[in-house]
Amino acid sequence: MQNSNTFQNSKDVFMDIVDSKDYVQLDRSMAIYQALKEAITKPLKMILVYGKPGTGKSMMLNKLYKELSSKQKIVFVQTPIIDENEFFKVLAYELFKFNSPSSLNFTQFMELTTHYNKEVIPVVILDEAQLYSEDIMEKVRLISDSRKIKFIFALHKTGKEELIAKEHFKTRIWESQELQNANVNELTIYIQKKLLRSNFFDVANMFNEKNVKVLHKVTDGNYRDTNKLLYTLFEICSWYEKNEPKKASFNAIPTKYIEMAAIQIGYIDA
Amino acid sequence: MLDIKDLEQRWGRYNAKRKRPLYIIITLSIIATGVAAFWTTISPTPLALIDRVTINVSTEKSVPAKVTIIPVETISNVYNQNVLKPNMSFALKVENIIVANQNKILLEKIALEKEASKKEHARIQAELLAQKEARAKTLAAKKRAASRRKKEKAQRLAAAKKKKTSPPKKSPTVPVKSSTIVLAEPKAQKTAEISPTLQIQQDKTSQDELNSVIKRYNKHKNPALSLFIARKYYGAANYQEAYNWTQETNALNPNIEDNIIINAKSLVKLGKKQKAITSLNRYTQKTGSLKAKKLLSQINEGSFQ
């Protein structure tokens, strides 16, 4: 018999929060992470990280930011700054600690960069880069051409927002890494690692191969969708545990519960 | 907050929807099995089985024989009478007509092919005859020319003799006679003794020539040279070498008609008639060469061996 709070607590493990502490190291993602780290040390103007939503781009960049922030100047812009003047103002402050009383335009920002010559080139990570206007991206390109700041873009791999498709970007991007959804094995490791890290050994043991295959079929190995599904699944398990403990057997996660969770969040049309 | 009861109902609907194809397949297979079982029960085989069983039963003493045998026979008879059997005679007729038509077409085709081959054969024979006649004519003309030359020579000699007869001492008939002998002797020598030496000389020269050509061929790899060598060997009755050289030529250019001919001829001479026929057949099909066809018919008839 499980502890009455087991599922209630284990569902919190799968809350959709971008925290580098929660980053699960998988072979494939670690290889990409290492490649990114190496790319930063090279004299490259632009680095691109792309993939479908929920493949772990933000999580990876957050981990990268946390790791490098103690060693060099690095700025992580998680939420896109749509206003151009505001964008340069934020960058000026974060990079050079220059607090402009009024707005800061591109020319002024470029002027600033010439005064700050540092041995290690500062890095700016722009998450959700597909949301930036073309004007801002053009200016970012010009800044990167000056080699005063290095940029890392993270963007969704969708047809309309193909920033990398633009010729002038294509030629400047030297390193690009694509993040993909997990396969069944990776998803198993991901779930196990997540649960074991929070000491939910009993819950981790409940997941068999069939369970993971059903999960993978429903979510297509997308980490965000998996988190969401598991969160709802544990909520359902928790309800049964509390209200109908005799009906439910918890030696393994019943496929029915997984499908119910998928119906609840709309991944299965019923 | 989750509404588990509603969620369970939705899952139930989803599960039923998901399993619907499976249910359909199971139902269909049950229906199919039922239909198959029905057909097997009404087919004549089980009746025959019943017939046999009841006969066995009827032999037992406890059951009256009349009661069991008669109804079963009547049932099977009635059954056999009532069962409609399809009359397939029309299908056989149609089949026979189709077969007869096909046979007719085939026979016509064969007759046409035979006629064509006969014509071809006659044409080739006529060509051969014409060639023979032409050769005979040329030989006769040569002979006539030679005899004319001989007569003229004899006349000239006779005239010379007459002139020489004026000095009585130096004009014995013996030298004249000897001269006639001398004239007659070289001819005999030509045929009997001189010709082998000439042949030997010719062979020597042709061998030297051949060696030089082989040397040239090794240097230039020209199919014309290899064909020439093959011809020479074939002429010298060295059929194995001739065949080898035709193969060499063929490797360089497989479309030389003369090479194919010599190759086939060499093969026949080497006793590989079938191989020669195959080779010629392939070539005639490919090119329609008359020369090759002619040789092929000669080989088939046995006139070329």
Please name the defining characteristics of this protein.
heterodimer; A: 270 residues; alpha/beta; Rossmann fold; 5-stranded parallel sheet; 12 helices; 5 strands; 49% helix; B: 305 residues; mainly alpha; 87% helix; 0% strand; elongated
Distance between the termini of chain B: 106 Å
- List low-pLDDT spans of chain A: none
- How do the strands of the widest beta sheet of chain A line up side by side? 2-3-4-1-5
Report the structural category of chain B.
mainly alpha
Can you tell me the overall shape of chain B?
Answer: elongated
Mind describing the biggest β-sheet of chain B? none
Q: How would you characterize this protein structure?
A:
The complex is a heterodimer of chains A (270) and B (305). Chain A has helices at residues 6-10, 27-41, 57-68, 84-96, 106-115, 134-145, 167-170, 184-197, 201-206, 209-219, 223-243, 255-264, and strands spanning 46-51, 74-77, 123-126, 150-156, 173-179. With 270 residues, chain A is α/β, with parallel strands linked by helices. Chain A has two domains: 6-19 and 182-264; 27-179, P-loop containing nucleotide triphosphate hydrolases (Rossmann fold, 3-Layer(aba) Sandwich), CATH 3.40.50.300. In chain A, strands 2-3-4-1-5 form a five-stranded parallel beta sheet, with helices on both faces. Chain A starts with 5 loop residues before the first helix and ends in a 6-residue tail after the last helix. Chain B has 305 residues and is mainly α. Chain B has three domains: 7-82, no CATH class; 86-144; 202-305, Alpha Horseshoe (Serine Threonine Protein Phosphatase 5, Tetratricopeptide repeat). Helix content of chain B is 87%, strand content 0%. Chain B contains ten helices and no strands. Chain B has helices spanning 4-42, 44-59, 65-82, 89-164, 173-220, 223-235, 239-252, 257-269, 273-287, 290-301. In chain B, α6 (223-235) runs parallel beside α8 (257-269), α8 packs antiparallel against α9 and α8 (257-269) packs parallel to α10 (290-301). Chain B is elongated, with a radius of gyration of 48 Å. Chains A and B meet through α11 and α12 of A and α1 of B.
